[in-house]
User: Fold this.
Amino acid sequence: MTLFDVEEHPAAPRGPSRRICLVVAYDGSPFHGFAINPGVRTVAGTLAAALGTVLGHEVELTCAGRTDKGVHAQAQVVTFDTTTADVDLAALARSANKMCGPTIAVTDAADVPDDFDARFSATARRYRYRVLNRIAPDPFLAGVAWHVGEPLALPNMVLACDALIGEHDFAAFCRRPKRRDGEEASLVRRVTEASWYDDGGGQLRFEIEASSFCHQMVRSVVGTLVEVGRGRKHAGEVLGIVRSGDRQRAGDLAPPHGLALWTVRYPGWSSGEG
Assistant:
C-alpha cells in the first residue's frame, strides 16, 4: 500500500443495503483526476477512504462524471451502498469534511432509492470554463481560470457556439475509445446549451450543457473557440470542424484548471446552480 491508495477496510457486510447520495465539491489541483488510481492521489480514493473509516467497511463510489487531473467540481454527485442502517447523514458529511477538507467538501447527503445511480440516472451535465482575458494575470484566479493575455473577440466566440447545439458526432473534439467488444464507441452527444458570458474585469465564462460528454470534449471545444476569439479560426468554420470528425482540425486542449463540473441534472432535481 502507498500513501495515496485507498485505506483497506473490511468488505461491506452482506445484508440489506442503504443507498446514499452525496453532492461533492472539490479543487482538482492536487488530484490526479476523480477515479481511483493506485499509487496516486485521486478524489474518489481520498473520499472513499474517509467514508470507509466512518462506516467501518469498504465503500465503492459511482460518480456522475469522471473529471480529469486538475479539473474541479462545484456539484459532483456520487452514490454508494452501506449496510450501516443507523448512520447519521449529517454526521457522516461532517466527518468526511474534517478528513478531506478543504480540497474536498460534501455539501449535501441524502438517502436515495436502490435503483438511483449517480451516473445512469442523470439526464444532463453542465460544465463551466473560466478565461481571464486581460494583459495582467490575477494570482487569486490563477488556479481556476485560464489566463489569455491577448484580446479575444467575444462576439465571434459566441457566434461559433451555434454550431455545437444539437445532436452531433463530436469525434473532432475527443479521442474515440475502443469498447470492450473491440468496436468503436459512439461519440454522438446532444448539446442543449453552449454560450460565452462576460462577467466583467476581463473574466469570461463558458457554459455548456449536454446529456453527457466524451473524454476531454469541453476542453477541446474551449480551445477551438478561443482560437476563434484570437482570429486564428472563423466562427463559420466550427460547423465544418464538427462535421469533419477530424481531431486535427479542432483546437488544442484548454488547460484543465479552468474547467469545473458545475451541475448534474436528474428527474425532478439538480445538484447545483444553473
Q: What stands out?
A: DSSP finds five helices and eleven strands in the chain. Confidence is low (pLDDT under 50) at residues 1-7. The radius of gyration is 20 Å.
